[in-house]
Amino acid sequence: MKLHPGKDFIGIGVFALILNNKNQILLLKRNNKNYWERPGGKIEYGENIFSALKREILEETGIQIKTINKLNNPIYINEEINYKEHWIGLQYVVQYKSGKAKIMEPEIYEDIKWFDINKLPKIHPTSKKVIKLYKDI
What we know:
Blueprint (H helix, E strand, L loop, with lengths): L10 E9 L4 E7 L5 E2 L2 E3 L6 H13 L2 E7 L4 E2 L10 E12 L10 E8 L8 H11 L2
Parallel strand pairs: 1-7
Antiparallel strand pairs: 1-4, 2-3, 2-8, 5-7, 6-7
């Protein structure tokens, strides 16, 4: 029997607010959803946090990052939307380093774009909370 993080036990993930030198953030739009979100995902067994963050960003966006700064508090993902899963998300602010942002997982995402941090589309409640935390620093 295979156990599933977030369902059979609390899942722990890493998520990034990716900034470029134009004060824009990179967001992804999920297939069949009406909101945008930040890249990220679960930490694999035996993987350290920073490796997981870099891996998830590369897997989802095709870009490399540098300068990783942790936001002060984790966000409990199941607080914002009525999930039937329990995840704790560690939140980071990172700088874009290199690569062309593109959809690397078309089975999950339908679009990827850089947005001015003060002119955002409709975003996932967790992403909204993280952006507010970042702006309040």
